[in-house]
Prior knowledge:
single chain; mainly alpha; 9 helices; Tetracycline Repressor, domain 2
Amino acid sequence: MEKELSKAERTRQFIIERTSSVFNKKGYAGTSMSDLTEATGLSKGSIYGNFKNKEEVAAEVFEYNSGKVRKQILERIARATSYHDKLMVYAQVYHSFTRGDFIPGGCPILNTAVDADDTNPMLKDKAAKAVIRWKNSIENLIKAGIEAGELKPGIKTTETALSIIALIEGGIMISKVTDSPANLDIVLGSVQQLVDTLKL
């Protein structure tokens, strides 16, 4: 049975949910306290009564946003019937980035990595851990696919995983700056070709 949240926990969750798209669109530096009070309808005192500072809100929001993406990916992977199709889930989920079926503002990992850079070590670390978790997930799928006899033996798992991530995130960045979803489609087509080469 799910534990009932306390009033303080519910308020924290409310703040996280209501500010999730603000941070993802504007970034940490670009999000002001007035943005947070406007998004939540709460006073500055109420927000700081639940979080130490803006950085703590941003950190929790990143976990919330990246968790939503991860949940969608894991659900689709669980439904996919082959390891090829499981690997293609990443391209399919991120394809929806330009189709309105994604977190407002786009990929939270890319946004946070670019926004935090060297100016916010805590957020940079969170983005780095998310990328490593993503890399490990792809590597594990490839290894399982090889063991199942569906994918070619001898695949360089780390290089392949990082290439898939780089293509997806690079495609998102290019489509955002050019305002062209077609550019993301082209890059995701390259992801498909890469995954296709892994099949036996």
